[in-house]
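Title: Comparing notes on inverse folding

I've been comparing how different people in this forum approach sequence design from structure. To keep things fair, I'm posting one structure and asking everyone to reply with a full sequence. Here's the target:
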């Protein structure tokens, strides 16, 4: 009985947080524009969008069904996410320090897109970190269906995170190509 009450409270808390991030309440938690800008970069290339955001759904559903997330995997994921978050903030500071004066429009656009993609990666890392903490604190075996759903979400976000790292690497390479 107590587990069901806790489950309902967690779901209500997650719904409230999701609502606060999706409704324009102010500048502090409004991440919609960042997500829209990042996804708009793929507007001209649907195949890349499908390969980065749709194909991982298939992989995560398959892996989540075979192997639900366990404590050891969550511990490692939390450590890796913490390292990635600090790395992405370092990349942001480097991108902010790059002088874009007297540069061509392509360079400025690439710099802006790389900045937005890096911020998007930080958002994915933080969301993934929050979900991982929730899964870690709730423990495995809380509910088989919830374990599988949490595993699917964690696997999906991890795949998207990794694939978007390739996007950032390519954009950084393009920035250096157009810097002169």
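Reply #1:
Here's my take.
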């Amino acid at each position: 009985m107590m587990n069901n009450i806790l489950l309902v409270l967690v779901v209500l808390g997650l719904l409230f947080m999701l609502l606060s991030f999706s409704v324009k309440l102010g500048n502090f938690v409004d991440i919609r524009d960042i997500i829209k800008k990042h996804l708009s970069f793929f507007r001209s290339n649907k195949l890349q969008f499908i390969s980065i955001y749709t194909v991982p759904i298939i992989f995560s559903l398959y892996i989540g069904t075979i192997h639900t997330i366990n404590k050891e995997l969550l511990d490692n994921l939390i450590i890796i996410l913490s390292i990635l978050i600090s790395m992405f903030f370092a990349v942001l500071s480097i991108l902010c320090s790059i002088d874009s004066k007297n540069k061509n429009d392509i360079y400025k656009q690439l710099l802006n897109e790389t900045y937005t993609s890096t911020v998007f990666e930080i958002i994915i890392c933080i969301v993934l970190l929050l979900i991982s903490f929730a899964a870690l604190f709730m423990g495995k075996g809380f509910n088989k269906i919830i374990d599988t759903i949490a595993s699917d979400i964690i696997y999906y976000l991890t795949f998207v995170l990794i694939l978007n790292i390739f996007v950032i690497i390519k954009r950084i390479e393009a920035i250096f190509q157009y810097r002169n």
